[in-house]
Structure formats: C-alpha cells, structure tokens
Amino acid sequence: MLRDNVRQVLRRWGPLRLGRYALEAFALYLVFGLLRLMPLDAASALGGFLGRSFGSLLGVNRTARANLALALPGMGATAREKTLKGMWDNLGRTMAEYPHLRKFHDLKRFETPGLEKLLRMRDDGRAGLSLGAHLGNWELGPIVAAAHAMPVAVVYRAPNNPFTALMLDRARRAVAPHRMPKGQKGGMALLRYLREGGHVGMLVDQKLREGLRLKFFGHDAMTAAAPAQWALRWNLPIVMTHVTRTGGARFRITFEDLPLPEGGNTPENVARLAQAINDSLEAAIRLNPDQYLWLHDRWGGKRAK
Questions:
Q1: DSSP H stretches of helix in the chain
Q2: Which residues contact 31 (CB under 8 A, 6 or more apart)?
Q3: Could you tell me if residue 25 is inside a domain?
Q4: Is 33 among the domain residues?
Q5: 144: closest CA among 97, 93, 189, 109?
Q6: How buried is 29 (Cβ within 10 angstroms: 0-12 exposed, 13-18 middle, 19+ buried)?
Q7: Which pLDDT tens digit goes with each residue over 155-181?
Q8: Domain that holds residue 133
Q9: Is residue 272 part of a domain?
Q10: pTM, full prediction
Q11: Is residue 100 part of a domain?
Q12: Which of 2, 103, 197, 203 counts the most CB atoms within 10 A of its CB?
C-alpha cells in the first residue's frame, strides 16, 4: 500500500517537484519549530524584522508596488515605499504568529469594537457570513467568534506544496475546527454547512478569473458573486470582519453589519451587494494600507498610468 501511494505521488508531481516541495517544507517546518520555542511577542518581532529586511528584495515586490500605485495614486513615492515596508513587516509578523495561534484564545490581545453585531448574528437562529480581507493578521477573526460560542468554518486556499499545506492546516486547527478548501469539494461542504445553520468565514479580496466585474479602489476587478448570492437567497446576515494590528502582536477586530438590499435575490441586487462588500474592504484597507497584502494581482495585470 505504501509503495503504491509513493508511486501515485511521483506520477502526480514528478521526482524533481516532489524533492523541491520536500525541501521547502523541511525549511518551513524548521523555522516554525524555532518560532514555536520563542515567546509570542519575540517571534512576532523577529518575523517583522525579517519581512522588513528581505521582503523588498523579492521580485513579487514589484507587483505590490504596482498595485499600490494603482489603488492609491495620490500617495507619493516615499510614502509608497514606507507602506510597502510596513506590508512586509506585517506579513512577516503574521507568518511568525502561526505557530502561536493558540495563545490568542484568551482574547487579552484584542480590542473588539462592534462585537455586539457578531453576537447578534450568533443568536439570530440563522446561518451567517463573516467576510474580510488579507489585512492585519487575517487568521484571527474566527478565534474571537469561537471564544464567544460561535464557531466559524473557514474557507481557505491550500498552498500548492502539499507538505506545507499539511502544516498550515494543523496550525489553523487553533483557529477553526471546520476548514474548507476552495474548490468543488469544499464548496459543497460549505453549502451544506450553511444549510445546517452554520457560520462561514471567508476572505474575499483575491483575484478571480470569473465573477462580477465591479469596482475596487476605482478600478474594475473580478469579484466573487457567491457570498452575495447566498446571503440574498437564504436571507443570511453578513458581518464584515476587519483585523488590524495595533502594535506588535496586539489587534483591533472591527465588526460591521452589511445590510442586504431590498427586493430579493435579483442579479441587480447581487451586484449591488457584492459592490458593497468591496467598498467595505476598501474602506478598511485605506485606513491601514501598510497592513494589507498588496501581493495579489487583484486587477488582472492593470498598471497605473
């Protein structure tokens, strides 16, 4: 049986890719192990230092710079570079905090303005959606919900490296007991979970190949229609969950209601609600652009003029 499994893996990825995946995962496991031995604040600070020091040297920083120039054209060159350095600091801290996610469960590191809106969704007897962006440490919202007796099933995109995916999935167990990968299988599980009255958390700011062409920072961006469709079809409440870093490994998680348009589940209302979701994300990002992950090609390669 083991020999058959090895053969299947080799046929799927090939020995070279499998070897690269194994080396990448070994390095990441080693780093995570070392970070786990450190106090949370020290690990977060080290991650921030590494992000600031080396992130700008990576080729993907060009994508981030172009996205930032497109989204915030009024920002000067000096401020833009400072914002990018802040982005790398936040990303480094977020990655270094993964091995310590369980330490956030006592909620001592959170401010939670608007928490009553989340609790109202918990108590209304219906399923619900918690939507956010890759802002601050975006993994932490479900921890606050679970601490208030509202477990949230998290939708995520698994890394291509299967060994890395396994490690991150284990880390996310501290965040949410139910985790659903993007794709057909995960989508079916998500719909079943909603029909059973569960609450689902999703990050809805990434680039899509399909969807609705709506505005995000004033430019066309393919936007997921599904959350708006589910909310209108089943009258589900939406709470926007914005996570921002207030300093070190401390955070503010802001909960905001997003009203559903009147008139039911029509194409016009789906577009209107999906645009409102984009607008909420944009407003939160504008307040803390240095904590947003500008690395995704959200606008399909469009560049500032």
A1: 2-37, 40-54, 61-71, 77-97, 115-123, 141-147, 162-172, 184-195, 226-234, 267-287
A2: none
A3: no
A4: no
A5: 109
A6: middle
A7: 877 777 777 777 777 777 777 767 777
A8: 105-291
A9: yes
A10: 0.90
A11: no
A12: 203
